Amino acid sequence: MLRQLLPHFSSSSSSSSPIYSLARLTRQSSSRRVPLASRKTSSSSRSSASTRPFLCLALFLLLILVVTALFLFPPAIMSSSSSSSSSAASVPFERPRKVVKKVLSLSQSEGDGATVRRSIGRHEVPNLDPFLLLDEFSVSKPAGFPDHPHRGFETVTYMLDGAFTHQDFSGRKGTIRTGDVQWMTAGRGIVHSEMPAADGVQKGLQLWINLASKDKMIKPRYQELESKDISQAEKHGVKVRIIAGEAFGVRSPVYTRTPTMYMDFTMQPGSQLHQPIPEGWNAFVYIIEGEGVFGREGAAPASAHHCLVLGAGDGLSVWKRSGAPLRFVLAAGQPLNELVVQQGPFVMNSRAQIKKAMEDYYYGRNGFEKASQWSST
Ligand code: FJE
Ligand code: FE
């Protein structure tokens, strides 16, 4: 498992990436050639005519080897020898993802007296298909998110500090605490309340992930993970909690109907991270605390409460130089490429479907049957 982890990870610039091993191989073979050649010239007077053909054959084979290596791996050799970009040499990705947008999330009111820092879903980042919203919430009693419906997407609530109680219209009730995750697939409909479960400020992240049109009316489903059951991995000063997807060779058991990865990284000073992200997926970082350098070794550091939208590519590199630890979440998802029509907690594909959702909620139909006679306690 740890070995699988290594290709994506290195704590120093002498990485074990194939680029470096190949460079080392070619350097070794050419240096081996030098003593051979010099031995040949210095001992030419003593060498008999019978050893000369063997030396020639060895040299010829070596030449073939070098030419074959050059032919088979030209990009690797080019990128390790070119000095056009300093990060190209220390990053194991062919197309490293860079930060294309950086947005500071300012506090706003939401729900009933609650405060959220919205990043995805605010006007600067309207949505990043399949992501609809990311709120960092800080809520104290009696504020919260009282009874409200959802249809057409998933909410993922990740507690950073404190506890939240969730109650829904089918009688389900539970409390999630620091480090726990509730992955709720609203599908055709859920009505619920989300309220602080303890005194003081309760903090967490809520991410909304869209569902494909074919999945919008599926049966609601919950996946709940207690903190102790969240897959973790740690190496060279980087700790990761894997909410969805795979990091460092460790996979989360969460089923993502819309293919998604979601992980929480903590990096100690002096560490670096190289996390593969599938090509074609949209990806962003949200910094929880500390600061670090994202995407390009020479980039300016980004700090807490910033959302970084990543450009195209096959992976993200992060450098944590000095100071306090850096903590951030990385999310990436396969775009649905479908029309998004949103009306508050209903996210559908057309105005007509939104109208239908509102009617269904109002009249208690098509998944909202239990809505009319229910209220949270
Ligand atoms: C809301 C629809 C909603 N951000 N962060 C409309 F679903 C909500 C809502 C939340 C929410 C809940 C939690 Cl626990 C954390 C959140 C929005 O419940 F506030 C409005 N206005
Ligand atoms: Fe909700």
The tally of beta strands, per DSSP, is 26
Order of strands across the widest beta sheet? 1-22-19-24-17-14-13
Note the overall shape.
Answer: elongated
The largest β sheet comes out as:
7 strands, antiparallel
Total helices: the number is 5
Low-confidence stretches: 1-47, 74-88
Overall helicity:
10-25%
End-to-end distance? 46 Å
Describe the structure.
- The protein has a seven-stranded antiparallel beta sheet, with no helix packed on it.
- The chain has five helices and 26 strands.
- Strand 7 (163-168) and strand 8 (173-177) form a beta hairpin.
- Mean pLDDT is 84; it is low at 1-47 and 74-88.
- The protein is of the alpha+beta class and 377 residues long.
- The protein has helices spanning 2-5, 18-42, 52-72, 74-81, 351-363; strands spanning 99-104, 107-110, 114-118, 131-139, 145-150, 153-161, 163-168, 173-177, 181-185, 190-196, 202-210, 221-225, 231-235, 238-244, 246-247, 250-251, 260-267, 271-276, 282-289, 291-294, 302-303, 306-310, 315-320, 326-333, 341-343, 346-348.
- The structure holds ligand FJE and fe (iii) ion.
- Ligand FJE is lined by residues 110-111, 116, 135, 137, 145, 148, 157, 164, 194, 206, 344-345.
